[in-house]
Amino acid sequence: MGTKIIPASQFTTEELTDFYNETRVDYLVPMPMSVDVMAEYIHDFDVDLDISPIVQDSETGQFLGLGMLGVRGENTWVTRLGVSPASRRRGAGASIMDSMLEASQKMGTKKTILEVIKNNTPAQTLFEKNSFTKTRELLVLRRAPMRPPLSPEGHIAWLYRKDALKALRSYPHHLTWINALKSMENASMFQGFHIELKDGTRGWLVYRHKKHSITHFVFHTERGNPVKMARNILLYLHLQYHRMDAYAENIFADDPHLPAFFDLGYFEAFRRIEMIRDIKI
């Protein structure tokens, strides 16, 4: 089977959404997207459609697979990579990956980053063949809409967009692509809270407020007990948004705030593995 690669920029957002959803119909963790969500994803995560490949059969023009490449400075991010079920194990995935790595190298980027769902062995094998190495596990947590049974302690202040971005700029650790400062700068409806408890524990939470959900949480404890800080700030958050789903992506598996999530009724939906490739290899 011969294939050809066409830049994603030559297709409409509607077409890209249909392509993507076709690759996810039997996925390990189904994640269908609407047209509006796809457009937001491309914008917020700096996806460059000119170097994001769509792979087609060179004779029939049939869609085989796609990948998207985010670009920020010296780093690129592989995302939404998928092959239609009927076209798997025929080299389309390798062609997509080769195209994105070649584009990354031409730009002189230093690192290419991606995330793969844990136990997605075929995808992980493809990435390892391309010199990606595992760095850490990331949790995706969910919580159904419900009002918390308790009220929070401490003094809590809203952080509106400007102050929430200022807090995130002070974050001392590396964040994944979707929770990074640039993603939050690109996003609409970004805000947070600062809390100080009587024992001196203090910290903040920033998050994205979407139409039907609250997402993309980043916590930081400035002083004191991280579980106590996170528990109280989550209580306050869910009092404000008790009718909304909560979706916390890419929480580090060793995050000290993690027990507070489970105390408030979150459950682990699945895990991702972050992988990085040094372009100099």
Compact overview of the structure:
The protein has helices at residues 13-23, 35-44, 92-106, 121-129, 161-169, 181-186, 226-240, 258-263; strands spanning 3-7, 53-57, 63-72, 75-83, 111-117, 133-143, 155-159, 190-196, 202-209, 213-223, 245-252, 267-278. The model has no long low-confidence stretch (mean pLDDT 94).
Note down, in words, how this protein is organized.
The model has no long low-confidence stretch (mean pLDDT 94). The chain contains 8 helices and 12 strands. Strand 8 and strand 9 form a beta hairpin. The chain has a 12-stranded mixed beta sheet with strand order 1-2-3-4-5-12-6-11-10-9-8-7. Helix content is 29%, strand content 35%. It folds into 2 domains: 3-109, Aminopeptidase (3-Layer(aba) Sandwich), CATH 3.40.630.30; 142-272, 3-Layer(aba) Sandwich (Aminopeptidase). The protein has 281 residues and is α+β, with helices and mostly antiparallel strands. The radius of gyration is 20 Å and the shape is elongated.
